[in-house]
Amino acid sequence: MTLEVGKGTKIKLTLESMITIGTVVIALTTMWFTLKADIAEAKALPKPDITRIEFDMKDELIRQTIMTTQDDVKEIKEDMKLIKQKLYE
């Protein structure tokens, strides 16, 4: 069964569905133009400067996290050795 759309085609929409469709179209249009304006504003802003102090602080935090993780892994390995000893003895 095919639907043919032509001059004689009638579409029945309630007032509620027309208002809903209109609201959705307006909302999407508003979001589109707001997004375009935000992108244009972001392009106009200067790039943020990363200071040497900020870079050093982030680097130190990453190094500290790696060392903490390394210590945790060592503890887990020791626990695994103890578990294996108890299991196989």
Task: Summarize the structure in words.
75% of the residues lie in helices and 0% in strands. The chain has 89 residues and is mostly helical. It has one domain. The longest helix is centred in the C-terminal third of the chain and has 37 residues, at 52-88. The radius of gyration is 32 Å and the shape is elongated. It starts with 14 loop residues before the first helix and ends with a helix. The model has no long low-confidence stretch (mean pLDDT 90).
Topology:
Blueprint: H1 15-44, H2 52-88
- Shape verdict: elongated
Helix content: over 70%
In total, how many beta strands?
0
Q: Radius of gyration from the CA trace?
A: 32 Å
Based on secondary structure, the structural category is mainly alpha
Short description:
The chain is mostly helical and 89 residues long. It has two helices and no strands. It has one domain.
Keywords:
single chain, mainly alpha, 89 residues, 0% strand
